[in-house]
Design a protein that fits this description.
The structure holds 2 protein chains of 2 kinds.
Chain A lengths: L6 E7 L7 E8 L2 E6 L4 E4 L4 E6 L3 E6 L6 E5 L4 H4 L10 H6 L1 H26 L5 H12 L6 E2 L2 H14 L7 E5 L6 E4 L3 E5 H6 L3 H16 L2 H17 L6 H10 L3 H17 L5 H14 L16 H11 L12 H8 L1 H4 L10
Parallel strand pairs in A: 9-11
Antiparallel strand pairs in A: 1-2, 1-7, 2-3, 3-4, 5-6, 6-7, 8-9, 10-11
Helix pairs in contact in A: 3-8, 5-7, 5-13, 7-10, 7-11, 8-9, 11-12
Chain B lengths: L3 E4 L12 E3 L3 H17 L5 H14 L1 E3 L2 E5 L3 H31 L3 H32 L1 E3 L2 E4 L5 H15 L6 H14 L2 E2 L2 E5 L4 H77 L1 E3 L2 E5 L3 H17 L8 H12 E8 L16 H6 L5
């Protein structure tokens, strides 16, 4: 080796005791020879040596074969001596190899792609998840709500009749009336929709209920539930490092609702089914008119079912415009059937309270 | 050869008479902090494990104990692996439990569902204790001084139980036993640790810090009574100046002043308590023939914390990346040791080393000391 013999001052610890060894280091027959002032010699093979860190006055090396061994060499080494030493590292393997600037740009590009994929995934992945999977998932998440859905023979029959008119699909969406005194309705994972008893009580016609039911069925049929589930799950991962479970999501959905476009789609679905089934959209229109009156016709009402929905006034107009003129619609339910729906929760002797909403 | 190292006492960051010194500068640290910030952002946070290792490598290498600098031997990769292990071991089960609990509640088994959730909270509480233990063990095992490291053969699982019951007992009598639970847990943790061949011995006592702790109970009363009097006086003065309306304004100003004083007062008491607590616990910790002390007074802590706030506010948050540096410097500047070390007897630690970093701790986001 051409540079054999160049000796530089060195100090080292053997990793066994805390005694500092002072002496010199030189390359000899391809090995780094450390010699103390007393003449004691330690030889280190070059591939045994690893770089640890650079300090203001010295460079620190370690040994693979003795993890706690530490060698300190001065920073101003002769180039011929330094050329056999392992290269320095600063940021970590890949980044040192390609440089900080390039690495930062590469990472940023990969990250941007990952974020874009992550944010758009619900929209293209949601509709592609088989409906049977969603049903199973919903079954696992919310089951059948124990005994908390209202049920009477007449009420069930009326609800089934209403559902048949707005959901011609097979298998049908499951619909129920939940014993909750709120003006609200939700579409849940597993092709389930719930009308809250509070909404049923304030309804002035069965056509209103058909409109709301059709809207929630629309969310299920247009796969908004799965999309929202994926989105919420994604955000919970993003925000809390995967600490938030999917379990929180089922009812988070009921609170969070869907995008405005999804709401419009669900409304369109409801209007299309109502037109097919000869149900007057004027009931739904008057429902939204009452909502607009009650909560104001603004875009960002804070309360209940209308939150995150398009403005109630605009929706009322769309439903009203959908009505055909000069041709009376047949009533969707008889008065007795409508009454059976209204009294369903009061007449069910063993319905339980929902306590977690 | 009988080498001895004498540890003295001092005050400044790099006082040559002090056993501990710090020679870093924020200008030298800034490139590390900013490149860490950049890489952490562009990797959506994944780089933070490597950033932590780089930051510690710098801080440790600029810290001197007697006549040799410290060295941080931990790597970003092991921290990352620790994080992934925690995610798999605990994130998965936690996910299943919260999913299961929600499903049970939806089906009408509220009690069972809530019990499942409560159970998972107890387990998290337990793991928080284990994590605090393991963080200290990890840091000692990755610290080199003269090629020697520290560590512990204890895995911290028993400490986790102590952490649970001592913390609970500390809170039960209206929080009065918190100083006891804190000092007792400090002792338990440090008594399980060693550096080289010698164990740490900690005999901290809660009695010396208890009086400061009582301020938490007395100060709010004093402040509310005093503040109430000030508010009434303000109201009367206001009424003198501007009639009834002036009285309302005067009273409102008095009450606002009282609330501010209450916040500042409680903050100050917390700082005073922590200052006393660290003087006590570090002062009662020994390592072989070495006695430690922590010299920071309440005013030093106040200066540190006010400095933190000012730095973060005037830099619009960027100063956050310098807080680790500031806190380490504060710690090294005020830490002192007295005694003698026989270097001949100081041999390598035989404790098992944790192969993967602070995963548990990282998951729960806590400090080590």
């Amino acid at each position: 080796m051409e540079n054999e013999g160049i000796a530089v001052p060195a100090s080292w610890y053997d990793g066994i005791s805390a005694i500092r060894h002072e002496g010199s280091a030189r390359w000899q027959r391809g090995e780094l020879v450390l010699e103390t002032v007393d003449g004691a010699i330690t030889s280190v093979a070059p591939d045994d040596l690893t770089f640890a860190e650079t300090q203001p006055d010295r460079i620190v090396y370690r040994r693979r074969s003795a993890p706690d061994f530490r060698l300190y060499l001065p920073r101003d080494l002769p180039p011929a001596f330094a050329s056999h030493l392992p290269e320095g590292r600063e940021y970590g393997g890949w980044i040192d190899r390609i440089g900080l600037g390039k690495a930062a740009i590469a990472f940023a590009a990969v990250s941007a792609a990952a974020v874009a994929l992550f944010l758009t995934a619900p929209d293209w992945l949601g509709p592609r998840i088989p409906e049977t999977w969603e049903r199973n998932l919903g079954q696992a998440m919310v089951g059948d709500f124990g005994g908390r859905l209202c049920s009477t023979p007449k009420g069930d029959a009326a609800l089934a009749k209403l559902l048949d008119r707005v959901d011609p699909g097979d298998p049908q969406v499951k619909a129920g009336i939940a014993n909750i005194d709120m003006v609200n309705a939700v579409a849940l994972p597993g092709a389930q929709v719930l009308l809250f008893d509070g909404l049923v009580q304030q309804a002035e016609s069965p056509e209103e209920l058909a409109g709301v039911l059709g809207h929630e069925v629309g969310h299920v049929r247009e796969r908004h539930v799965m999309t929202a589930l994926l989105r919420q799950f994604g955000f919970s991962i993003l925000l809390s490092g995967a600490n938030s479970g999917l379990g929180d999501t089922a009812f988070g959905l009921a609170q969070m609702g869907y995008s405005r476009d999804a709401e419009r789609e669900a409304d369109q679905y409801a209007r299309a089914r109502m037109a097919e089934s000869e149900i007057s959209p004027l009931g739904a229109a008057s429902f939204f008119e009452r909502m607009a009156e009650k909560y104001g016709d603004s875009d960002d009402t804070l309360f209940g079912w209308v939150a995150s929905h398009p403005s109630a006034g605009e929706r009322a107009r769309l439903y009203r415009n959908a009505a055909r003129e000069n041709a009376p619609y047949p009533p969707v339910l008889t008065d007795a059937e409508f009454e059976a729906l209204k009294t369903m929760c009061a007449d069910d002797p063993d319905v339980e309270e929902f306590e977690f909403f | 050869m009988e080498e001895t190292a004498d540890a003295g006492a001092g005050g400044r960051a790099d006082d040559p008479h002090s056993a501990f010194g710090f020679t870093g500068s924020w200008r030298e640290f800034a490139p590390i902090a900013f490149s860490n910030l950049l890489l952490t952002i562009v990797t959506l946070g994944v780089y933070r494990f490597w950033a932590t290792a780089r930051e510690r490598r710098y801080l440790w290498s600029r810290s001197r104990f007697v006549d040799e600098r410290l060295e941080w031997a931990g790597t970003g990769l092991e921290l990352f692996i620790g994080f992934v292990i925690v995610l798999l071991l605990f994130g998965g089960p936690y996910f299943i439990v919260s999913f299961g609990a929600q499903a049970l509640i939806a089906r009408g088994y509220e009690a069972l569902g809530l019990a499942l959730l409560a159970g998972s909270i107890v387990i998290i509480f337990y793991l928080a204790g284990v994590a605090r233990f393991r963080a200290l063990r990890y840091r000692l095992s990755r610290t080199r001084w003269r090629g020697i490291r520290g560590g512990s053969d204890d895995n911290g699982f028993v400490f986790g139980l102590s952490y649970m019951w001592k913390t609970a007992v500390g809170w039960i009598p209206a929080g009065l036993l918190i100083p006891w639970s804190m000092t007792s847990l400090w002792n338990e943790r440090w008594n399980a640790m060693s550096f080289g061949p010698y164990r740490f011995v900690s005999k901290a006592d809660s009695a010396p810090v208890f009086l400061r702790f009582l301020l938490f109970y007395l100060a709010p009363i004093a402040l509310v009574v005093g503040g109430g009097i000030a508010a009434v006086m303000g109201a009367l003065a206001g009424q003198g100046i501007g009639g009834d309306e002036g009285g309302m304004i005067g009273g409102a100003i008095g009450i606002i002043g009282m609330v501010i004083a209450l916040y500042l007062g409680l903050g100050l008491i917390a700082v005073a308590f922590y200052a006393a607590f660290y003087r006590e616990v570090v002062g009662k910790t020994r390592w072989h023939d070495l006695e430690f002390s922590f010299e920071a007074r309440t005013k030093d802590w106040v200066k540190l914390l006010v400095g933190d706030v000012v730095l973060v506010v005037i830099t619009l948050g960027i100063g956050l990346i310098f807080l680790g540096y500031r806190h380490w410097k504060f710690f090294m500047t005020h830490l002192e040791a007295r005694g003698e070390i026989l270097l001949d007897d100081l041999t390598q630690s035989t404790t098992a080393t944790a192969r993967h970093g602070e995963g548990l701790l990282d998951a729960f986001d806590m400090g080590a000391i």
